[in-house]
Specification:
Number of domains of chain B: 2
Distance between the termini of chain B: 15 Å
Largest sheet of chain B: none
CATH class of one domain in chain A: Alpha Beta
Radius of gyration of chain A: 23 Å
Number of helices of chain B: 18
Number of helices of chain A: 9
Shape of chain A: globular
Oligomer: heterodimer
Strand order of the largest sheet of chain A: 2-1-5-6-7
Structural class of chain B: mainly alpha
Radius of gyration of chain B: 23 Å
Helix content of chain A: 40-55%
Order of helices and strands of chain B: HHHHHHHHHHHHHHHHHH
Strand content of chain A: 5-15%
Number of strands of chain A: 7
CATH topology of one domain in chain A: Rossmann fold
Order of helices and strands of chain A: HHEHEEEHEHEHHEHH
Shape of chain B: globular
Strand content of chain B: under 5%
Structural class of chain A: alpha/beta
Largest interface: A-B, 27 and 33 residues
Distance between the termini of chain A: 86 Å
């Protein structure tokens, strides 16, 4: 009996000791996460205020911005219809939605660099299995030539400052441009979430997604870099992801990825 | 704040424990009450009105309890009033929209749904306090005179969110006086660690596979994957709820309070009759004591017994959720239990192999009905499981290979942990080096998984 009692005390002493050592690290992480949550809530509140004030004030700056974007709209983006062979030299870079396209979209001739959790902050360090080899994006872009490169990232970074993330995104686009001088780049808008998700989540809501999509849209030039918005296909009347397309409010059902790639086939830029 | 969260394990619980043990013995119940209020408040911070709802409910039930005990003439009326009072809140928050949806299918009347979020723990604390009122009416024990003890009992944070549904008297006695032994505290830590591991290491991870399958879409998966899938869900719901219940017991013990078992190796059962004496034990006991036996139990002939069982199982189904699939689930269980009672059980018991195969086949099927709320999706799932009846739009016939690769080890672990191995680790009184290392490893692996953010909120939470 006595030795058993002592052993239980040995256990509790070791356990408490490990708690004392481990707690600071864990508590630091917990607090950091809470701070981030508060920050992104503040950012959302700010966005709300800015939107309201923009409705009222028509500054000279705003007007110039409007003219700029409407000019790029005026340059007629001639999307054309292509077939599967268009994607022979296509590279898709992205997160779990792009993974879905790779698994269920039927474009087995294209190259996919996609992984759940991919984000613009870690993209250079991310290793993905491509053709049974683990590669990083720099390697892939340095050793192969692609005619068109599709990029879709943003949902995993929604918790961070949107301007900071957009800046990183711009850097990444320039990085691709530097490595693949003759390819066209498609900046894909991030997919919306459903109304139910958008209204209940402080971070993953369509307000933030739209704001971020607007920011990255500015990097398109309609000459070599184009902006594609799949949401026009999957949205409901209120511009949320139509609930019939999804179970988890974030990803579409596997069977709809074929429709996604069909939409891509109808919104292509023919390279000379 | 859920038990399997870093805030709870590293901030809330340690601080509360320290305050508790610094406080002199006679004021410790105040610390429990105070801690429970804070715990609940954090849980309902998006709907602070629910805190008020709980407070009012506690006060009203306290007075009803005392009035029942005081005045024999009016005790029955007070009891009925108390039951209606408590059930009406449960009805409004949980069942109103469901009833509206039924009415809208029958008549052309347009009634708006309320779309309310369920107040935290309402299904559990409602049942617990109704049990209390009935017990007091039946003079099983005196009503609680101390409003402090009554409140602490009803909102004790270890059990308010998702049970176990403890007999009021159980906690009442312990609130009045409990011995403090270091061995019980250590036992509490042990319970908590194993419970945390069951939930975080097994349930949350195997749940990802089931979520993946739902995300792909049931109509697109292959039949082998469908079968694999429902087994993973069966494991998820078991280890999630068992883990939670064991954590609740551990927390209780850390404060010197014993909370009864909720699970006793249900997946080793040979019949559903046996199964539901070992699964969510406190709920089964509640239904037996407060509905089945008052209806007559099995003492009024076979037909009446079957009817009583039917009522119990439909209500049990509905308690779990306000949807048709839960009613179908309840009735399905009833059909199995009736068959066992009438002829099947003696074979299941006599030939354990048959009993186990029977259970291995039916358990995941019943949980499938329980999980899929949309009836047309449920239909598609059953067509997928039994493909002789429906069409099959499989996208990839070999999709299950990837999942066996990714989740095979976890599935084997789940199988092994469905035996008495975890129970031995939980209840063991010995602390040999293997066990000490195992407990430390389980704890820190769970913390690591939480740290990297891979966990799901507790399944039974919307209750």
């Amino acid at each position: 009996m006595k030795s058993m009692i002592n052993k239980s005390r040995v256990f509790i002493v070791i356990f408490l000791f490990s708690m004392i050592i481990g707690s600071p690290f864990v508590i630091k992480q917990v607090i950091a996460k809470k701070v981030q949550e508060i920050q992104s809530s503040k950012e959302i509140a700010e966005i709300d205020n800015n939107e309201n004030s923009n409705d009222n004030i028509e500054t000279v700056e705003n007007k110039e911005e409007e003219n700029k974007t409407s000019n790029s709209k005026k340059i007629d983006i001639k999307f054309e219809k292509v077939d599967k062979s268009y994607f022979d030299d296509a590279l898709f870079i992205g997160d779990s939605r792009t993974e879905g396209i790779s698994e269920y979209g039927g474009l087995d001739n294209a190259t996919f660099f996609a992984d759940t959790g991919s984000n613009i902050y870690d993209i250079y360090d991310t290793s993905v299995s491509v053709n049974n080899k683990n590669v990083k994006i720099e390697q892939l872009l340095s050793t192969n030539k692609y005619g068109k490169i599709y990029v879709m990232m943003g949902i995993n970074e929604l918790g961070y400052n949107l301007d900071r993330t957009a800046k990183k995104y711009e850097e990444f686009i320039n990085f691709i441009k530097g490595k693949q001088k003759n390819s066209i780049i498609y900046i894909e808008a991030n997919l919306h979430v459903t109304k139910a998700k958008s209204e209940s989540d402080k971070t993953f809501n369509n307000q933030r997604i739209n704001k971020y999509n607007e920011k990255i849209r500015k990097f398109s030039d309609n000459k070599n870099i184009f902006y594609l918005d799949i949401n026009e296909y999957f949205d409901d009347e209120e511009h949320n992801l139509n609930a019939k397309y999804t179970h988890d409010n974030i990803h579409v059902y596997a069977k709809y990825y074929k429709e996604w790639t069909n939409w891509l086939k109808e919104h292509a830029i023919k390279v000379n | 704040m859920i038990f399997s969260s870093l805030e709870f394990i590293f901030i809330f619980l340690p601080i509360l424990l320290i305050i508790y043990y610094i406080t002199p013995n006679k004021y410790r119940n105040y610390v429990l009450l105070f801690g429970s209020i804070i715990f609940y408040f954090i849980g309902v911070k998006d709907h602070p009105a629910y805190m008020l709802l709980l407070a009012i409910s506690v006060i009203i039930n306290y007075f009803i309890g005392r009035l029942i005990g005081k005045n024999k003439k009016y005790s029955k009326i007070m009891l009925i009033f108390g039951i209606i009072y408590n059930l009406s809140f449960l009805f409004v928050f949980k069942y109103y929209d469901f009833v509206v949806s039924i009415i809208s299918k029958i008549s052309t009347k347009e009634i708006k749904t309320l779309n309310l979020t369920l107040p935290l723990g309402i299904s559990f604390y409602t049942f617990q306090v109704i049990g209390y009122l009935i017990d007091v009416y039946k003079e099983k024990y005196d009503p609680e005179k101390s409003i402090l003890n009554f409140s602490t009992n009803m909102i004790f944070f270890a059990k308010i969110i998702s049970g176990p549904i403890v007999q009021f008297d159980d906690i009442k006695k312990q609130l009045e006086g409990r011995p403090y032994k270091l061995s019980k505290f250590i036992q509490g830590v042990r319970y908590f660690i194993v419970g945390l591991g069951l939930k975080t290491i097994i349930a949350d991870n195997i749940g990802i596979m089931w979520n993946d399958i739902l995300m792909i879409g049931i109509e697109s998966i292959s039949t082998p994957l469908a079968w694999l899938g429902i087994f993973t869900y069966a494991f998820e719901i078991y280890f999630d709820f068992w883990g939670y219940s064991v954590m609740a017991q551990g927390i209780g013990k850390m404060f010197g309070i014993d909370i009864p078992d909720n699970f006793n190796l249900p997946y080793l059962s040979k019949s559903f009759t046996e199964f539901f004496r070992k699964w969510h034990i406190t709920l089964g006991t509640w239904f037996k004591n407060y509905i089945y036996i008052p209806l007559g139990g099995n003492r009024k002939g076979t037909i009446r017994t079957l009817l009583n069982l039917f009522i119990v199982w439909v209500i049990t189904g509905l308690w779990h959720g306000a949807n048709w699939n839960f009613i179908i689930w309840g009735i399905f269980i009833w059909i199995l239990i009736v068959n066992e009672k009438l002829w099947l059980k003696k074979y299941l018991d006599k030939y354990p192999i048959i009993g186990h195969i029977y259970m291995i086949f039916f358990i995941p099927l019943t949980w499938t009905i329980f999980n899929i709320t949309n009836l047309s999706q449920l239909n598609i799932m059953f067509e997928k499981l039994f493909p002789f009846f429906g069409s099959n739009e499989v996208i990839d016939n070999l999709d299950f290979v990837k999942y066996i690769k990714d989740y095979g080890i976890l599935m084997i672990i789940s199988l092994i942990c469905s035996t008495k191995l975890p129970k031995n680790l939980i209840e063991g009184k010995e602390y040999n080096w293997i066990e000490i290392v195992a407990l430390l490893a389980i704890f820190w692996l769970s913390v690591y998984l939480l740290y990297t953010g891979l966990s799901n909120p507790f399944l039974y939470f919307s209750f």
